[in-house]
Amino acid sequence: MSTNTKLVVDERLVKEIAVLARLDLSQEETKMFVSQFNDILEYVSILNEVDTENVAPAYLFSANKSVTREDQIEESVSTREFLANAPESKDDYVVIPRVHMEG
User: How many domains does the chain have?
Assistant: First the structure.
């Protein structure tokens, strides 16, 4: 999409997004989201007006160093101990309820 193209959200697009998100929106909610999405896009479009000609790309947003620890191999519970806490297991696997997809 070029920077000159203005995206406008309409009811059709909100309904498509709702289907993808598995949301059942009322007509009132659909209209509300049309308005809210367009307000957000209008607000974000202000960024296109910012002069970034002499601004270097930012590769790091924080000067902080990583605070995560190095991966280390440690002792863990055995499969048998783990499965002893599961509500149901079979052949070294935890059994969970089947997920039914609609549509």
Answer: 1
Cα separations in angstroms, 55 against 50, 51, 64 = 11, 8, 21
- With respect to residue 68, please indicate whether it lies within any of the assigned structural domains: no
For 18-30, what is each residue's pLDDT tens digit? 999 999 999 999 9
CA–CA dist 57, 63 (Å, integer): 15
Residue 56: inside a domain, yes or no? no
Which 3 state secondary structure label does DSSP give 23? Answer: coil
Q: What is the pTM of this model?
A: 0.48
Q: CATH number of the domain that 15 lies in? A: 1.10.20.60
- Asked whether residue 18 is domain-assigned, the answer is yes
Q: Is residue 62 part of a domain?
A: no
**What is the rounded distance in angstroms from the CA atom of residue 50 to the CA atom of residue 53?**
9
Q: What is the largest CA-CA distance in the chain?
A: 62
User: Which residue range is the domain that position 44 belongs to?
Assistant: 7-49
Per 3-state DSSP, what percentage of the chain is helix, strand, and coil (rounded to 5)?
40, 5, 60
